[in-house]
# Entry
Amino acid sequence: MTHVDKEYPVHILLVEDEPDLRDTMRYNLKRHGYVVTDVGNGQQALAVLHGVGADNGAIDVVVSDVMMPVLDGIGMARAMRADPRTRELPLMFLTAKGDAADRLEGFRVGADDYLTKPFDLEELLARVQVQARRAQVARKMRQLMPVERTAAHTGDLYAKVAEWEQRFPSLAAIRQDEIVGASPRTLALLREILVRAPGKDPVLIVGETGTGKTGVAEALHRLGSRADKPFRVVNCAELAAADQAITAGKLFGFGKGSGLTNVSKDGQPGLLEDVDGGTLFFDEIHRLPMDAQAMLLLPIEGRPFHPAVGKGNPRIVDIKFLFATNVDLKAESVANRFPMDLYQRLAQSQIKVPALPERKDDILVLAEHFLDECKEEFDLQQASFAPSLQRNLVERRYSGNIRELRHLVREIARRAAFELDTMLSLDHLPDSAGDDGVAPVPVFQAPPSMAAPAPLMSPPSLPASSGPAVAAAHDSQRPLPAGTDDDGNGFWNEIEMDELVALRKHRFRIADAERELGLSSKSRTLTNHLRGLCFKALAHSMDGERANIVAAAKLVVGREDEALLDRTIERVQSYLEMVEKHVVAHTTDLLFNNLPRDYRKHVERAIEATRAASRR
# Structure
């Protein structure tokens, strides 16, 4: 299910003149939690935006066709951007016109996004989700202004956060990279951090493994008066494996005459002295040797301590002590595994970090954050989550909390990058993530009232283009080559058929197909062959300068499989866009890198068609 604010769902104005397509889109947007008002042209849309006919509150996002009677999308966009009431309203165009000039015109008049028909429903929902998040942020900002009035009269936690950000300038950055999310539990956590960041009192951070305790510690340091002083992390699990004398010496220092190898006879300062004036974070404090735990009470209370090994003068340090644990320290102290006096000192100032199931509303926000972290690394700048995957991420169980979610998103992104996919879907879930008890539901359903809904994939009356060079014609009934059956036998040679059989069997997961064929993943042989196969299918589908992307994809997929066909259409489309990019940059030689010789002529044909189209 699409992640929307349940209390204040996003209200979409859908502007589309084709009734069947409009009904289908309206039904599916509502299924995913949106409130939808739909109209048939730009004039009707402007009337709704000005308060006529919208019974469900103010519009948050506009999704509009471009070519419409009475008033088209371009005219509507101009009117929206000229009106202060709608100037900042998110607007996404859906159009059968897909060449660069049309897209440029759409963006010039103020469109925020542009999706070319025919489109996959999952891509539409993912794009709408981006604009919905923007609308939700804008709405909350409107609710927060003016801060003094809203916070004082409503006690709204969101308003208080805005006030906090004014008082603590670094808080906004922390919410972007440390404490991500806006659920009530997360905002309450922020409040506790702000309360306990000032002053010298130690703080005990309690939470399950993977909940983000280190992030809380870093936020406490950045929001306190020691932000410009050292911040050091002590991994107590590592110290637990060392000799107790060495461990204590590393923390409290070595005095004169320690007699230890690699330690000066005059002594050596410990970590406490090195961090004097700053913040020291003990992660997994319950793992620290008990003798060292007991010795910590002295510096915590500002009392003098002596070197742990050897002789020396007493020392006093000024440090903000932070501790984290995932165990019950009270039970540990009762069992004599943790000093009772240290526990009593730490128990006075605790922060409980909620587990991920307690902040379920933050899951998709966190997933987007983790995807943004790895987009550049995996070359997935345009990547987004399919709605079916969003639902899966929200409903699955995370025994490892946020850490597990981060690892899962990275693995999904890694697999999508390998498959050259920008739409992250259920197909990219690792096999080990399959046993989570989550049963995926179909993303697309026809409205019950529609006996034969108009498919979003290929409305026959809506021609579309991949760009100035090659158009995605919607007559997907172009016959296969003579002597070819539905699977493409007769068109592909024997080697190609072997590769396609393996690819189809594994739903075009290249790594699995490579294993079956005995190919090395390092050589990327099958990836390069698949690129050639797609260009060969495109060459057959070409009529002059135009190519039928749907027919080419069907030839590659070889059977009726809507989900697989949609993915292959996207793959073929990306290959054509790659041709356009290299033609414009005069770098077409790069298109032949690692491409088998048999497929060069098909790429050359695509290049010629692109150049011919650009000369028109």
In short: The chain has a mean pLDDT of 80. Residues 360-433 form a domain with the Helicase, Ruva Protein; domain 3 fold (CATH 1.10.8.60). DSSP finds 26 helices and 14 strands in the chain. The chain has four domains: 11-144, 178-352, 360-433, 464-615.
